[in-house]
Amino acid sequence: xxxxxxxxxxxxxxxxxxxxxxxxxxxxxxxxxxxxxxxxxxxxxxxxxxxxxxxxxxxxxxxxxxxxxxxxxxxxxxxxxxxxxxxxxxxxxxxxxxxxxxxxxxxxxxxxxxxxxxxxxxxxxxxxxxxxxxxxxxxxxxxxxxxxxxxxxxxxxxxxxxxxxxxxxxxxxxxxxxxxxxxxxxxxxxxxxxxxxxxxxxxxxxxxxxxx
Length: 212
What we know:
Strand content: 15-25%
Number of helices: 8
Strand order of the largest sheet: 5-6-4-3-7-8-9
Structural class: alpha/beta
Shape: globular
Number of strands: 9
C-alpha cells in the first residue's frame, strides 16, 4: 500500500495544534477532549478527529487526549526535534528581523549562516552570526551542508539564486522575495511567503464588513 498523502490544509493546521497545545501545557492542563479542544480553537470536533486520523489517531474514546503526549507526537510529525541547518540570504531589515526574532531552534531548525552581497554590512553580525559575502556561499555549503535557505532578497534575483542553491544541496526554501519560485525538482520544497497577501485578505474582510 502506498504512503498516504496528507492534504495541505491538514499540514498547515498542525503548527497551530502544536502551538495551542503548548499553551495548554503551560496552563497545567493534562487532558483534553476533541470537543473541548474544538471549542478553544474554533474548529469542529470532527475536523480535529479527521486531522489526527490522518496520522493514525491519538486519543482514546471517552478519554480524550493527553496534552503533553499529543504535543510531542505532533512535534515529531512536524520535525521540531530535528536540527536542520538553515542559511539566510539577504541581511536587510527583513532578513535581520527574521534572523533575530524567529526561534529557529524551537521549530526544528538551526540558523547557521547569514549572507549578503552588500560590502558595507559584511563582517557585521546579526543574531550572533557574522554576515558573510556571497562569494563564500559555495565553500560554506560544501563544508556545512545546510538543507534550507531563507530568501530575503529582491525578486529579480530569487530564481537564479534558488537554482544556484539547489546545485549546492539546498532542498527547502522559505522564500520572502515576493517572487513565486518555479522549481521543477520534486525533491525541493518551497514555501513562498507573501506578507502583503495576508494584509490584503484582512483589508478585503474589513471592506466586506463595512458593506454589510
